[in-house]
Amino acid sequence: MHGEGGSLFLFMIIKSIEPHLLSCPLPEPATFPFNGGRRTIFKRDAMVLRVVTNDNLVGYAPGSASEKVVEMINDKISPLILGQDLFDPENFVEEMIDIHGDDVWSAAGAVEIALYDLWGKVNRCSVTEFFGGRKQESIACIGSAGMYLSAEDHAAEASAVCELGFEAYKFKTALGPADDLKTVELIKQAVGPNVGLCLDAHAWFRMGDKSYSAAIVEFLAEAIAIHGITWLEQPLPTEDREAYSRLKSMHYVDIAAGANEENFLGFRTLLGRDCVDIVQADISHHGGFSGLSKIIDFCERRFSTFAFHNSGTALETIVDALIGSCFPRKTARWLEYPQYAHRDKRVMYPFPMADELVPDAPVPEKGEFPLPDGYGLGIEVNEEVFTKYPYQKGPWSKFEN
C-alpha cells in the first residue's frame, strides 16, 4: 500500500481522513408530475472528502453522498492508512476491494482521488500525468437539466440550456408514450438540427402499474429515431440484460446505461452481452480515478463509446473531466454538464452549493469544458460550504405512484 514513496515523502504522514456530508435544501420542495405519479425534490446532497498530512497539505475528493459510504471510510479504510507515510495510490482501490469486497468500491474510490490530489501536489504535476497524460485539452459537454416538464416547457428549457453551445441536451420525460413523443418533437423543433437529444428514460420502469413494457420502449425507440437522438438512457430495468440486448440489436437509436452498476463486472456484462452502445459511469460511484480509467479503457478495447454520468457539483465535474482527458475523444466522448436555476432561472431547481464548492471552477466555452492546469486536481475547494450547508438526514427526493 505504500508504493515507492522515496525519501522526499518519508515524513509526510496521513494525519486525518475527513468525509463531509453536505445538504443544499431547495427553498421549497419541487414537485414534478409524471405518468401515474410524481417526484418531489427536497434537497441536493454531496460528499466532500479531505485527506490531510502532518504538514497540513490537503487532498480533496468528491464522493457518493451516502451515510453508508462515510461509515465505510471511517470504519474500514481510515484505520488502514491513518498514520502511514503518504504513498502512491496506484493499487489502492484494488487492495481495499481485496480486503473488504466490492461494497467498498465507491468509498475507496473517493479516498483514492484525495490521495492522488496529494500525490500530484507533492510531485508538482496534474493527476492526469499518472494516467498517461492528456489526450484532450477539453471535454465535449452534454447540457442537462429538468425532468417531467410539459412538452412545451421542456422545449423552452432546452432552448435556454443550449444557448451555451452544447452539442446535445439531456432531459427526463415520463408523461406517457404519446406525450413523451410530443416532447421529443417539440424539443427538436426548439433546438434545431445541429443539437442532439439525450433522453433519460430511467422513470419508464418506475411508474408502478403504468411502467412501460419492453414493447412500448421498442415502439418509442423507433418513433424517436428520426429526431436526432444522441442516446436513449436507461429505458429498461438495470437487471434486464436480455431486454437491453434485444433493444440494441434493433438499431433504432444508440442505447446508454451503466450509472446503476455496482462493480466492474457489471460493466463487463453490459458490453460482453452487447447491451449498450454507450457506457455511462461517474467518479463518485465507480471506483475513483482507477475505476473510471479501467471502465474507459475497457470501452476503448471494445471499440465502444463512453459518456460521463454527472448530476453533481463542480468538483465532480472537474474530476470526471480530468480522467476523461486521458483518453482520446473517440472513446471518452461526452461529459454531462448539469445546468441549475441559480445560474439561469429558466431551467430546473437551484443547487448553489454545486458552484460555491469550487468558486473558480472552469465553465464550458462553446460547449467544451476546459481543464484546470494546477497541481493535483488543479483547483481550490471553498471549505466554508462545510458549515454553510450542514447535512440533513433523509432522502433527497421521493417517487410516489
Topology:
Elements: E1 14-34, E2 37-53, E3 58-63, H1 67-81, H2 92-100, H3 105-123, E4 138-147, H4 151-161, E5 168-172, H5 177-191, E6 196-200, H6 214-224, E7 229-233, H7 241-249, E8 255-257, H8 264-272, E9 278-281, H9 288-301, E10 305-308, H10 314-324, E11 332-338, H11 353-356, E12 368-370, H12 385-388, E13 397-400
Parallel strand pairs: 4-5, 4-11, 5-6, 6-7, 7-8, 8-9, 9-10, 10-11
Antiparallel strand pairs: 1-2, 2-3, 2-13, 4-12
Largest sheet: 8 strands, parallel, barrel
Using the 3D structure, state the CATH architecture of the largest domain: Alpha-Beta Barrel
Strand content: 15-25%
Name the CATH class of the largest domain: Alpha Beta
How many beta strands in the DSSP annotation? Answer: 13
Q: Record the strand order, biggest sheet.
A: 4-5-6-7-8-9-10-11
Taken together, the total number of domains comes to 2
Average pLDDT taken over every residue: 95
Molecular structure report:
With 401 residues, the protein is an alpha/beta fold. It folds into two domains: 123 residues, Enolase-like, domain 1, CATH 3.30.390.10; 258 residues, Alpha-Beta Barrel (TIM Barrel). Helix content is 33%, strand content 23%. The protein contains twelve helices and 13 strands. The strands form two sheets. An eight-stranded parallel β-barrel has the order 4-5-6-7-8-9-10-11, surrounded by six helices. Strands 1, 2, 3 and 13 form a four-stranded antiparallel beta sheet that branches. Strand 10, helix 10 and strand 11 form a beta-alpha-beta unit. The longest helix has 19 residues. It is globular and about 65 Å long. The N terminus is likely disordered.
